[in-house]
Amino acid sequence: MNPLIIPVFLPYLGCRQRCLFCNQRVTAEEVPSPLFVRNFIQNSMKELSSNGMRERQIAFYGGSFTAVGREDQIRYLEAARPFLASGLIGSIRISTRPDALDEDALALLKAYGVKTVEIGAQSMMDEVLFLSRRGHSGADIVSAAVRLKQFGFEVGLQLMIGLPGDTYELFVETMDRVINLKPDFLRIHPTLVLRGAPLETLWKTGRYAPLSLEETIRWLKKGLLTAEKFGIRVARLGLQPTEGLEKHFLAGPYHPALRHCVDSQIAFDMAEHLLRNNSGGSHALFLCNPREISNLRGQRNENVRKLREQFELRAISVQGLEQIARGQLCLQRPGGTTSITRKDLIC
Fold first, then answer.
1. pLDDT at position 31, please?
2. C-alpha triplet 186, 189, 195: angle, nearest 5°
3. How much is the pLDDT for 11?
4. In the structure, what pLDDT confidence band is assigned to residue 347 with cuts at 50, 70 and 90?
5. Which end of the chain is more exposed for a tag (fewer CB within 10 A), N or C?
6. What domains lie within the chain, and their CATH numbers?
């Protein structure tokens, strides 16, 4: 079960340079003080008091936490310590750069109850990292992930698709290298052009073109299915919709329900495969888990409409059955019932 996150945003804190795509004012305008953080956590705990037995986790996002001066790191960790000591929260999570995770930094995090470390990897390809002004290499990501595992941390990798110089083939290579690292989870989101980010200039002068939504869904489908194949959880696809994002967004494949778009495309591919290999009759009945009916139908019933037209069917029915596992789709036709799972799709 995913923990309940209490997010604390520290924009640009610890950043050694400005990445090409970055405008962290989307999430927060100013860096909060440790005192503000303590009060924010206390107020957040009141709102989360009725959320059952899920673990509560304070998360320091934005900037590069372990690239901040040691004394400042301690001040923020001390703000969280009372809640950890009292059992009101279970652990702490931080996000940081891969080249700011030496053994001294990890020992400090361990001493203060940090459980989860998210690495801002973005890509495993050096040419993409260089063009994005990341200031680190793919080898730094590998080294950081290995070291975190050795110290017993839960490891997450944050990836971006469609950065300058990126291609579908390079993203496939990135996913292959990521899988070899065996992270506990991933976050993957497309590159967006944000007002105030250095990338805005390249976009305005025609030197950068973001991915289309269609391309984005294709890339993310590949990433999601690859991760699932190897048992790696994808915690999120796409950025969390916020007022700040809406305010600063200029161009790119932004969609408030990007995960649903990707899951719907996967469901369409599964249904298409079943129909292509099981012809006969003018009607098709699909059976799936009730929680996946929306994915199968698609936004505004688009999947059903496309399948009817493609296979010249008079009608398509969708029925939810609890006994069907999530990720499985069954097709019932006069010749019998056949099924497919997400893992059966060729990545």
1. 83
2. 140
3. 77
4. low
5. N
6. 4-256 (3.20.20.70), 261-344 (3.30.2320)
